[in-house]
């Protein structure tokens, strides 16, 4: 706990109690020494003018929600919560429910037909062009159910969910490549796959005792963002993190494993004092497939499964039980941390290529050549307790988070980065104290070829007493620092719901021009007239319902009990910020339509009686009155003259 609060920060916080508005000025004090009091960019006007943050925020942060199952969105530097993007978990607040047939299909396992509405999002990865964010999409993994989603940044909604075959889940590391053509995700949880894979690998696998197998899956991304399963590589190991290289490391897939012991219990996973960093030549995977050295499974007859023996892969030892795996902006340094140690290793990818060429090898493991660590490392740094993840800025520095030390350490990179900062590389130049344990960090663009720098956000675990007590389950904490200077300054912090792992921070200038206010234009919407049709063979009522302030049309819908209702709800709104909902008394149906949105829903009208449907958004002064009736006529009492007749237009 020693590094929780610097004396300067304590003083600033205490004084801040007397006057909240002086806090930022005091924290910023040291940098402006001697200068003619330049304007303080973090000073907030009071009262806040309208649109202050809409005009001043520089970045959108897309923070994974962990067990929340989607993404949180907030602005930087305001640290103002903006929205949530539900993905793998239903969330009626944001209109993401399985009564919607399109959403239901995305959430349904294609192989079992089961609707899965739980998930665990970890690693968002934004689309890139030439290694730089392009603002089109954010992709993210569901660790629990082996799914990958694409979030479209014109709507801030999920556009596709791709299910990964041949696995029970445990999909952890996930990364989109520098040109958004390939994404990779790996299996952290050991697997007992279909027989075809087991036979192809030729390893002894006991279904109860293990050791099991695992690997990495490649996902192809088409120009329009459509994802498909491209291949899988399986072998003896299971992986924590996965990254696709660029620049110096272009064409390589890089993974870490903390359980090179192949153990099935925690103690067993700590038996080796070194684990591995893996380098996979992506072209060699494609070559193996082109040469038909693969198998397929019953579940996924179109997805080639390649053995690690048939591809070009190398390992090098790294401190035990690594967690962080991050690539410097030029793609040259791979930084990885031993989370149960004090060590952070910088591997020079140029040296890796040399070591491969010159066969600087110290042994073999399962036939994989072990590259000499002395030949590939640029530095082995002893930096502090419990290093986790690493990010990079635009000035040649790496920032390493420490779970146990509760701080971030700033370290100058070597090689070509030295001309940016002029400092001795690999020595700590700044320590940023955080409130409690650092998990991931994010610098805008800090995982790309072009970091924007300027800010770093620490996504803390175990925030304990940072905020008002709110019960045994404490919320999480994101802390914002400015890093344009040394020492870095903490400018703000926010509570955010459980539980962020990684985030992506994208410039407002990249995202905002794409964002829609409405799904459709008035002309296309008014062309879709309301209608009701009764199908006595299928026992279905098919409805096209117009939804516009402050009417549902039809306003009364008659249905024979037990029939299926298939309704297309069309919002006729084109005005900004006018959403409507459709919630149905005594039925488990609640959907939401944003301006111009079309939603298809389906349910069985099994409960007789008068059921009102009503709007769930306070959309106008006639919001309460915006309702209609579904009259479900008991079986045996229905006669065709009870059918809904729409008023002629
Ligand atoms: Cu939580 Cu990136 Cu899944 Cu570390 S991982 S914090
Ligand atoms: Cu529409 Cu309330
Ligand atoms: Ca280990």
Structural features, described:
The chain has 649 residues and is mostly beta strands. The chain folds into three domains: 55-118 and 141-163 and 383-515, 7 Propeller (Methylamine Dehydrogenase, Chain H); 164-331 and 364-372, YVTN repeat-like/Quinoprotein amine dehydrogenase (Methylamine Dehydrogenase, Chain H, 7 Propeller); 522-642, Cupredoxins -  blue copper proteins (Immunoglobulin-like, Sandwich). The protein is 11% helix and 39% strand. The strands form nine sheets. The chain has a six-stranded mixed sheet with strand order 12-13-14-16-21-20. It has a five-stranded mixed sheet with strand order 8-9-10-11-15. α1 runs antiparallel to α2. The N and C termini lie far apart (71 Å). Mean pLDDT is 92; it is low at 1-35. Residues 580, 615, 617-619, 623, 626 line the site of dinuclear copper ion.
Total number of distinct structural domains: 3
Ligands present: sulfanyl-(tricuprio-$l^{4}-sulfanyl)copper, dinuclear copper ion, calcium ion
Summarize the biggest pleated sheet. Answer: 6 strands, mixed
Q: Give me the oligomer status.
A: single chain
CATH topology of the largest domain: Methylamine Dehydrogenase, Chain H
How far do the termini sit from each other? 71 Å
Short summary:
The chain has 649 residues and is mainly β. It contains eleven helices and 41 strands. The chain is globular.
């Amino acid at each position: 706990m020693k590094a929780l609060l610097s004396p300067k920060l304590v003083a600033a916080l205490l004084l801040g109690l007397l006057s909240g508005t002086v806090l930022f000025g005091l924290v910023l004090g040291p940098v402006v020494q001697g200068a003619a009091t330049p304007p303080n960019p973090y000073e907030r006007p009071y009262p806040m003018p309208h649109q202050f943050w809409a005009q001043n925020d520089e970045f959108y942060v897309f923070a994974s929600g962990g067990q929340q199952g989607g993404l949180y969105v907030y602005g930087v530097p305001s640290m103002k919560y903006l929205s949530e993007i539900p993905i793998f978990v239903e969330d009626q607040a944001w209109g993401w429910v399985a009564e919607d047939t399109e959403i239901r299909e995305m959430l349904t396992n294609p192989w079992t037909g089961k609707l899965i509405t739980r998930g665990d999002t970890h690693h968002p990865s934004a689309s890139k062009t030439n290694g730089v964010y392009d603002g089109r999409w954010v992709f993210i993994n569901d660790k629990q159910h082996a799914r990958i989603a694409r979030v479209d940044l014109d709507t801030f909604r999920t556009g596709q969910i791709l299910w990964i075959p041949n696995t029970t889940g445990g999909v952890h590391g996930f990364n989109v490549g520098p040109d958004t053509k390939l994404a990779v995700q790996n299996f952290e949880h050991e697997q007992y796959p279909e027989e075809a894979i087991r036979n192809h690998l030729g390893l002894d696998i006991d279904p109860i005792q293990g050791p099991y197998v695992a690997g990495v899956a490649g996902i192809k991304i088409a120009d329009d963002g459509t994802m498909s399963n491209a291949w899988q590589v399986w072998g003896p190991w299971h992986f924590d993190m996965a990254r696709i290289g660029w620049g110096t490391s272009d064409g390589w897939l890089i993974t870490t494993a903390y359980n090179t012991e192949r153990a099935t219990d925690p103690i067993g996973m700590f038996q080796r004092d070194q684990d591995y960093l893996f380098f996979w030549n992506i072209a060699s995977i494609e070559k193996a497939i082109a040469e038909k050295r693969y198998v397929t499974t019953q579940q996924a007859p179109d997805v080639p499964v390649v053995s690690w023996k048939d591809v070009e892969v190398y390992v090098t030892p790294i401190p035990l039980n690594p967690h962080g795996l991050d690539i410097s902006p030029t793609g040259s340094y791979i930084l990885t941390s031993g989370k149960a140690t004090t060590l952070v290793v910088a591997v020079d990818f140029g040296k890796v290529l040399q070591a491969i060429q010159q066969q600087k090898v110290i042994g073999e493991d399962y036939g994989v050549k072990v590259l000499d660590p002395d030949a590939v490392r640029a530095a082995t740094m002893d930096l502090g307790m419990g290093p986790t993840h690493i990010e990079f800025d635009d000035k040649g520095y790496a920032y390493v988070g420490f779970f146990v030390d509760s701080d971030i350490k700033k370290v100058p990179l070597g090689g070509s980065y030295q001309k940016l900062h002029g400092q001795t590389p690999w020595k700590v130049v700044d320590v940023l104290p955080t409130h409690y344990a650092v998990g991931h960090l994010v610098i805008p663009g800090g995982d790309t070829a072009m970091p924007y720098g300027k800010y770093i956000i620490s996504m803390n675990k175990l925030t304990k007493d940072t905020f008002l007590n709110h019960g045994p389950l404490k919320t999480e904490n994101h802390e914002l620092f400015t890093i344009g200077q040394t020492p870095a300054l903490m400018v703000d912090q926010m509570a955010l719901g459980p539980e962020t792992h990684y985030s992506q921070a994208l410039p407002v200038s990249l995202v905002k021009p794409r964002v829609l206010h409405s799904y459709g234009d008035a002309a296309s919407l008014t062309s879709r007239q309301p209608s009701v049709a009764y199908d006595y063979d299928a026992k279905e009522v098919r409805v096209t319902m117009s939804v516009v302030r402050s009417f549902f049309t039809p306003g009364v819908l008659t249905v024979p009990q037990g029939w299926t209702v298939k309704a297309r709800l069309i919002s006729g709104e084109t005005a900004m910020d006018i959403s409507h909902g459709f919630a149905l008394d005594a039925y488990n149906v609640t959907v939401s339509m944003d301006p111009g949105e079309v939603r298809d829903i389906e349910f069985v009208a099994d409960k007789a009686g008068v059921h009102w449907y009503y709007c769930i958004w306070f959309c106008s002064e006639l919001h309460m009155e915006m309702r209609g009736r579904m009259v479900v006529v008991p079986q045996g009492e229905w006669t065709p003259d009870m059918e809904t007749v729409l008023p002629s237009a």
